């Protein structure tokens, strides 16, 4: 008969990961949790009467065991009926109720086999029963892996009881701490119900049977106590003596103590045994010693190859411990240590790791080089653990003061020994140029190669000449310094030496009149301070150059040797000198292989073989964009590279502003028709070519299209004569000539860069015929003497327009008379374009510089421009990369070539 107080709760039950999400309804109204869960759990102490299940105001998270308990008669509320709120919940409730007859009964364990697997009848789904049992085991901290060994006990004691005591006595286990650094003592003790103390046998009676040592008042409980001890010992993993006739007593090592605390104590407590632990041990948490390691060389002055010595020191609670004491702690497998009156449990994993890292520092034979390149720090970093935001790390690396200073000098180029500017220098150095000179000298004394990679126009030349003057001030009889430069800037070097360091004797090894035999003897006899030569000449005379050991070899525009497999690059890298210096504004123009070639020159073998460098850095960085490898390479480059840019406000350059502007021009109708026709033929050809042939065809296509964007006459290879008719066929040509005429009319000068000889000649023709302007054209074929004369005349204002081929005129020249720079066509490397622009935008420039970049809209030029923006980071980051255009996929090529 239904009571007038009877209520029905409809439950919505949904499984979520390892628990159930439950809501309740009454008369179709969603109930707050406290309205239904509290009365349901009024007998359920394990869940603190439902409190641990509350998730929010209307939702409860329940384990399988809690749901089973709520449905079980032992905990069921007499006036509440439970029903399902929907079909899914109905299925869940049905499965739970099906297994209730076995829930909270010992009979359930008959279905477990010795291997720990369940074998229930297949007529019912027992999944929720298994989950409920595992929930209970977890609540009592009993490992599932221990089920087979504990099975006999579960068959006698399930559900787990909270006491297994006799009416007058209770068996317990007590852990006693060591007197000093000895072993721990675990012993069985007896507690009387009316006494608060624990009883143990007298020392002389410890080995007597339990029946013979109990006080007379407890003699009748001897069998019960013996039985309980036998049962308890079966729960211990630290002993096999499961049938001891006397009271259990065992000394535990730290490892056994850890096993006892982690595994045995939960088992004993789950089966109702009381375990007496030292009060402090209950709250003891694993801790780590504070560790300090100091790296030193034992010398007042260090070098990169000096071996490191490590001094370890440990501390806890303001007490210190030497490395020897720590090793003894490790050797004895101590995990619990007493410092003063306090005990500490040392984290065993940390202990093992620290032992490993100490052995690493002893066996790895680390040097100062490893410290500089962070290899030591990387090995130690995994052991540095921030215990708390307000505390310092548990492991701190200190570096000997003199060694730290040395590393700072290498890494940051700061704190270098000050050097007076040589008296023979005919110039005042800017402060950053003084720093560069001091750095080059420091690197020489440390026997390190150096790469001075300042932006174009920051004065690499004067820094190098100051270094040379200082070298001969200190070593008047030193061998000559070799400076290898592109032919285009050889004259510039002669003028700069004459201007800034006229006291230096210079021998120019160039041209047909140069010494071709007995080169070394000539240098020994004439004793020049500087030998000036070109890359081509040095390559031709490589055998003669190898007969002489130079004091220093400097490569100007060092990116010239970027292609390591060329005869020129190999010849240059085999020259002999006491010191190697690379000067370049673009240490990486396009590929990391170029970086390897430069560093193989300044520090032979530094990166190992090219194959090793490729496997270690090029492939992970260029293919996978691996950030860790990028950072690792930066760290290895940093000590040997000094790079400053014009954008750095710290340099206080006070350069005038520079504005870069895109000048967009449409294709003429003739150009557009030719463009689309040529694209279609090129794409058809690519489908039938080998990979090698494909690359060549792509480069050919790029060149033809860019010529077409300039003017159809270049594409069609026409003989150009009539300037007026030429003007009508290309908007770009018309815009360049119009802008140039305006610049001249304003009394200004400009540089026009182009990649193509034909474009330069076409511009010359049109400027002459249409505007009466004679504009010289500097190319790679221009003789050195004529080149030098043209540069001097332009700087003196003899002519307003100077046309230059991008490669021949893009490096080494000082053309600050120009206030405008025009790029008639775009190169697909921003570093090359920037070099060309820096012919005008450099120290010595006092006027606003306007850079004009001409782009034909909808063509390959506009799409390459977008790629250039992404590639700009290449030179700035030094170790970035971008896909070479010939490696683009078919879809990317179609997008690049398409006219839109």
UniProtKB/TrEMBL annotation:
InterPro entries: DUF3670, Helicase_ATP-bd, Helicase_C-like, P-loop_NTPase, SNF2-like_sf, SNF2/RAD54-like_C, SNF2_N, SNF2_RAD54_helicase_repair
The keyword Signal appears for this protein: no
Residue span(s) of domain Helicase ATP-binding: 441-605
Keywords recorded for this protein, A-Z: ATP-binding, Helicase, Hydrolase, Nucleotide-binding
Example GO molecular function: helicase activity
Domain Helicase C-terminal: 738-889
Protein known as: Helicase
Organism name: Caryophanon latum
């Amino acid at each position: 008969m239904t009571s007038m107080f009877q209520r029905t709760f409809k439950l919505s039950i949904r499984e979520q990961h390892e628990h159930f999400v439950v809501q309740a309804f009454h008369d179709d109204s969603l109930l707050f949790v406290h309205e239904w869960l509290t009365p349901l759990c009024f007998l359920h102490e394990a869940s603190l009467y439902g409190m641990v299940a509350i998730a929010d105001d209307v939702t409860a998270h329940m384990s399988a065991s809690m749901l089973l308990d709520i449905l079980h008669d032992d905990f069921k509320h007499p006036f509440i009926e439970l029903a399902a709120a929907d079909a899914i919940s109905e299925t869940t409730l049905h499965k739970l109720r099906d297994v209730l007859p076995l829930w909270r009964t010992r009979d359930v364990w008959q279905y477990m086999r010795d291997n720990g697997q369940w074998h229930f009848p297949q007529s019912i789904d027992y999944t929720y029963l298994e989950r409920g049992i595992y929930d209970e085991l977890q609540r009592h901290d009993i490992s599932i892996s221990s089920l087979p060994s504990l099975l006999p006990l579960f068959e006698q004691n399930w559900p787990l009881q909270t006491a297994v005591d006799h009416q007058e006595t209770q068996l317990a286990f007590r852990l006693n701490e060591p007197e000093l650094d000895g072993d721990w003592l675990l012993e069985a003790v007896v507690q009387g119900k009316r006494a608060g103390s624990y009883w143990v046998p007298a020392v002389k009676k410890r080995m007597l049977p339990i029946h013979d040592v109990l006080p007379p008042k407890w003699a009748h409980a001897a069998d019960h106590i013996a039985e309980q001890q036998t049962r308890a010992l079966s729960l211990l993993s630290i002993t096999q003596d499961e049938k001891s006739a006397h009271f259990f007593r065992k000394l535990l090592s730290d490892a056994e103590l850890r096993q006892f605390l982690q595994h045995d104590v939960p088992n004993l407590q789950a089966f109702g045994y009381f375990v007496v632990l030292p009060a402090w041990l209950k709250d003891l948490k694993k801790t780590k010693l504070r560790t300090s390691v100091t790296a030193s060389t034992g010398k007042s002055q260090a070098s990169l190859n000096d071996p490191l010595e490590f001094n370890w020191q440990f501390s806890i609670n303001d007490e210190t411990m030497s490395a020897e004491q720590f090793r003894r702690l490790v050797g004895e497998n101590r995990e619990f240590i007493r410092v003063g009156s306090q005990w500490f449990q040392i984290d065993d994993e940390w202990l093992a790791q620290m032992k490993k890292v100490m052995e690493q520092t002893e066996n790895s034979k680390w040097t100062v080089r490893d410290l500089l390149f962070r290899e030591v720090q990387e090995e130690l970093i995994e052991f540095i653990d921030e215990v708390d935001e307000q505390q310092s790390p548990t492991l701190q690396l200190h570096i000997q003061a003199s060694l730290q200073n040395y590393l700072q000098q290498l890494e940051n180029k700061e704190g270098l020994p000050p050097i007076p500017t040589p008296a023979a220098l005919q110039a005042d150095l800017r402060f950053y140029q003084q720093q560069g000179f001091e750095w080059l000298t420091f690197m020489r004394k440390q026997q390190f190669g150096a790469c001075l990679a300042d932006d174009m126009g920051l004065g690499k030349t004067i820094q190098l000449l100051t270094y040379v003057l200082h070298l001969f001030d200190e070593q008047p009889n030193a061998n000559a310094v070799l400076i290898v430069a592109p032919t285009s800037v050889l004259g510039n070097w002669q003028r700069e030496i004459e201007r800034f360091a006229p006291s230096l004797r210079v021998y120019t090894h160039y041209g047909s009149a140069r010494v071709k035999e007995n080169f070394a003897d000539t240098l020994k006899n004439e004793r020049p301070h500087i030998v000036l030569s070109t890359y081509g000449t040095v390559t031709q005379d490589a055998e003669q150059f190898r007969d002489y050991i130079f004091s220093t070899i400097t490569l100007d525009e060092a990116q010239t040797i970027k292609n390591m497999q060329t005869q020129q690059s190999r010849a240059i890298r085999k020259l002999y000198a006491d010191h190697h210096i690379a000067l370049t504004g673009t240490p990486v123009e396009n590929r990391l292989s170029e970086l390897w070639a430069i560093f193989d020159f300044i520090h032979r073998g530094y990166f190992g073989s090219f194959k090793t460098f490729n496997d270690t850095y090029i492939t992970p960085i260029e293919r996978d964009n691996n950030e860790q490898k990028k950072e690792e390479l930066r760290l290895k480059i940093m000590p040997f590279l000094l790079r400053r840019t014009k954008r750095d406000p710290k340099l206080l350059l006070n350069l005038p502003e520079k504005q870069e502007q895109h000048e967009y021009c449409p294709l003429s109708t003739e150009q557009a028709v030719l463009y689309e026709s040529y694209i279609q033929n090129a794409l058809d050809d690519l489908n039938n070519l080998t990979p090698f042939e494909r690359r060549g065809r792509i480069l050919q296509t790029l060149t033809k299209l860019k010529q077409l964007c300039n003017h159809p006459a270049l594409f069609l290879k026409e003989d150009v004569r009539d300037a007026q008719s030429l003007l009508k066929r290309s908007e770009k040509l018309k815009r360049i000539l119009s802008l140039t005429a305006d610049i001249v009319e304003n009394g200004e000068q400009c540089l026009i860069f182009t990649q193509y000889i034909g474009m330069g000649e076409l511009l010359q023709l049109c400027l002459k015929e249409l505007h009466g302007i004679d504009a010289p054209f500097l190319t790679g074929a221009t003789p050195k003497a004529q080149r030098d004369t043209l540069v001097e005349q332009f700087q003196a204002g003899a002519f307003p327009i100077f046309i230059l081929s991008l490669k021949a005129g893009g490096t080494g020249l000082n053309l600050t008379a120009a206030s405008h720079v025009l790029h008639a066509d775009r190169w697909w490397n921003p570093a090359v374009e920037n070099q060309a622009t820096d012919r005008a935008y450099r120290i010595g420039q006092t006027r606003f510089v306007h850079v004009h970049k001409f782009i034909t809209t909808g063509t390959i030029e506009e799409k390459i421009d977008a790629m250039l923006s992404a590639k700009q980071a290449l030179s700035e980051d030094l170790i970035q990369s971008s896909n070479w255009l010939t490696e683009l996929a078919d879809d990317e090529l179609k997008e690049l070539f398409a006219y839109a």
